[in-house]
Fold each of these.
Amino acid sequence: MNTLAIRDSVIDGVKEQWDEKFESIVAGLRMPTADVVKLMLESIPSHVYDKQIGPFYNTTAVRKLLGNVTRQAISDRVKNHSLLRVTTADGVQLYPTFQFANCAIRPEIREILSVFRDAPVDGWAIAQWFTTPAHDLANRTPRAVLDEDPSLLEYVLPLAQGTAQRWMAP
């Protein structure tokens, strides 16, 4: 299959699924169509960690997603451990998309991020923790468990607390 045929096949697939998911994806965004398209395209995988952790939004996309907040507001949320940010080797700041729902940071993700507040690790380690299968979760990832049912936080939170304690141990 040539590149053009693959492109057309992907576009057809997106169109089919778009109708099914339109309401849940766009209804709560309250942004111009061009911004929705840009936000969607910015989440397309392009990095080695995209398969495990991604996709990612850049800072501009997160600012728009959260209601045109300032860069300082984004930075404050990262410092307060209520927003997960990773920084690439070339200094690009990215935000895993799994932490967002309905134009907000998912409350269960914020609660877990607060557990890692004092852990001497960067955003990549925390993002990998969210996306690594855990024996205590029947070999599922914390991300998958919370995606399925946010109320399962009661099972994921102790796992995060144990990991944070191990990371802080001398």
Amino acid sequence: MKEILALLTVVAGFLGWLAQRRLELKMGIFNDAVKALILFEVDATNQKLQKENYEINGNLRRIYPFLSDETLALTCRSVGLINAFFSQEVSQLFDNAINSVSLKKGKDGNLFIEGMYSTEDRKIIINKLSKELSISFIIREFYSSLINR
């Protein structure tokens, strides 16, 4: 009987460790996704960065905003990991936020971003990600406040 109890204790401990490890992985993905959203917006709205990388003789070469290597790597990684570890609804929200953006040239010659997600969209994404992690309201508000600056 003692052996069975010991075995059950070990199995329960292992299952608890697995659940904790999965939560830690998802929390890391959550942190990277929030950082990716912030860096994506910074790069996409940076006029100098966009002009340097998209204009040849005044003509646009691409319609998707140029992203720094760090932002591109983090964004691609976040999209893949969110697809793997979070619900389809959250994956779709994050994917749409990143892929609905396009670069246009205005009549004044300045580049502008079309389809950029709004502050409300960012809050929705962060809230849905954090709810799947069961993160408290206070922490969700903290992350939301970071990207409202």
